[in-house]
């Protein structure tokens, strides 16, 4: 059993986990339990910040009692260890302070005498940041330990981290690419991973992105083991994707097959086979403030036409059951409400059904940063 600490938008993160692992449930508001014994590589998951193997489960209690149990357990477990252990402790969902969490580590340090020396990572907060855990390589070897102590609604779990999201590699893939384009948009690599996993969790084969832009989805799909097929209306974007994927193949030494071509997604004829589709479609123009009602009606109608025509065209060319994850625009008003594309209520009309998810409802799959007007609504579909 694993516990996953979910990203900034936990509903999107848990949806990804449910698609990949099936047997997943909420544990408090920011974590999920994954019921598998198989090893999990956190770097394949866009929405999980930290991952740990559950080593103990307790009834609900306060930090002090849990802390005592941790000290008793690990002072025994590490008593015979000959060498240095680096330890970080992160508490989630507790009413406690960073000082109290740090105190748990200090008590343990004092109890460990003899040949064991404990280096404690200082807690600025009750939980170590992803950056701190990552830079200290916690969870990546036996003597670099991060304890993830998570309080759910009805119990508490203690887990030993098996790794943190590799923010250095993600930033390098995002900012180190030779070709970027602020106007076309900057799909974060994490969100591209989530889209791919939402579409087709376990079947690396050939993945199509029909609005490939600068190639972020294709790049992440290559890293996940897919052959990739990208098309875009603009030749410039195909050139950008080519440059970015050449760079990735050289720097990361990956050998998936790449096919790129210009095509209008509304009438393209794609070459078979297409085993999965993951795409961030045309999102309309960017806005820095909420648009006027008439402007919103115009942009929404335009996007609905382009994306609806694309979906129909795509459905005609897919085998029944082919998984498709699509990010489409939704617009956020100043009161926090969203205007959706009409087509999201009618995906059946376009030849698709929604993939049922038990951990979240479809309306929760809206990705946006606090300052963004245009959100990305994630549709998890399959060809009818
Ligand atoms: C939001 S961007 C996608 C960005 C992409 N995820 C990336 O990694 O850069 C949308 C892309 O759709 C393309 N596009 C717009 N209308 C299109 C159409 N009818 N058919 C195909 N591509 C289209 C644009 O050229 C643009 O590259």
How would you describe the overall organization of this protein?
This protein has 384 residues and is of the alpha/beta class. It folds into two domains: 2-165, VC0802-like; 171-383, Vaccinia Virus protein VP39 (Rossmann fold, 3-Layer(aba) Sandwich). It has nine helices and 17 strands. The strands form two sheets. Strands 9, 10, 11, 12, 13, 14, 15, 16 and 17 form a nine-stranded mixed beta sheet that branches. It has an eight-stranded mixed beta sheet with strand order 2-3-1-4-8-7-5-6. The structure holds S-adenosylmethionine. The site of S-adenosylmethionine has 20 residues, from helix 7.
Helix content: 25-40%
**Mean pLDDT score:** 95
Instruction: State the fourth-level CATH superfamily of the largest domain.
Output: Vaccinia Virus protein VP39
* Total of DSSP H or I helical runs spanning 4+ residues: 9
Order of helices and strands: EHEEEHEHEHEEHHEHEHEEHEEEEE
Instruction: Estimate the global geometry from the Cα principal axes.
Output: elongated
Taken together, the total number of domains comes to 2
Could you please say which CATH topology of the largest domain applies here? Rossmann fold
Radius of gyration from CA coordinates: 23 Å
Using the 3D structure, state the CATH architecture of the largest domain: 3-Layer(aba) Sandwich
């Amino acid at each position: 059993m694993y516990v996953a600490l979910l990203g900034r938008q936990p509903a999107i993160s848990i949806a990804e986990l449910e698609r990949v692992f099936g047997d997943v449930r909420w544990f408090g508001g920011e974590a999920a339990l994954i019921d598998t014994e198989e090893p999990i590589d956190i770097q394949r998951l866009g929405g999980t910040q930290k991952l740990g193997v559950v080593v103990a489960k307790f009834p609900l209690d306060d930090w002090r009692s849990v802390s005592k149990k941790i000290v008793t357990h690990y002072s025994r477990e590490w008593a015979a260890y000959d060498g240095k252990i680096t330890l970080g402790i992160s508490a989630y969902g507790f009413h406690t302070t960073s000082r109290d969490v740090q105190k748990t580590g200090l008590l343990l340090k004092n109890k460990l005498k003899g040949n064991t020396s404990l280096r404690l990572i200082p807690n600025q907060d009750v939980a170590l940041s992803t950056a701190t855990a990552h830079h200290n390589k916690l969870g990546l070897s036996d003597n670099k330990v991060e304890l993830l102590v998570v309080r759910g609604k009805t119990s508490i779990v203690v887990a030993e981290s098996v790794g943190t999201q590799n923010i250095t590699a993600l930033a390098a893939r995002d900012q180190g690419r030779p070709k970027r384009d602020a106007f076309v948009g900057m799909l974060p690599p994490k969100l591209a991973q989530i889209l791919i996993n939402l579409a087709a969790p376990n079947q690396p084969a050939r993945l199509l992105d029909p609005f490939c832009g600068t190639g972020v989805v294709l790049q992440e799909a290559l890293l996940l083991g897919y052959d990739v097929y990208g098309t875009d209306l603009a030749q410039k974007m195909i050139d950008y994707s080519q440059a970015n994927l050449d760079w990735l193949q050289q720097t990361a030494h990956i050998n998936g097959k790449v096919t790129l071509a210009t095509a209008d997604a509304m009438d393209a004829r794609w070459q078979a086979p297409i085993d999965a589709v993951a795409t961030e479609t045309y999102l309309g123009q960017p806005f820095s403030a909420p648009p006027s009602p008439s402007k919103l009606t115009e942009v929404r109608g335009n996007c609905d036409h382009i994306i609806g025509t694309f979906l129909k065209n795509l459905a005609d060319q897919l085998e029944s059951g082919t998984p498709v994850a699509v990010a489409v625009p939704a617009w956020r008003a100043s009161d926090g409400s969203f205007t959706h594309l009409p087509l999201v209520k009618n995906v059946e009309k376009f030849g698709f059904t929604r993939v049922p998810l038990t951990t979240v409802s479809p309306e929760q799959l809206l990705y946006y940063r606090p300052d963004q007007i245009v959100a990305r609504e994630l549709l998890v579909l399959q060809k009818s």
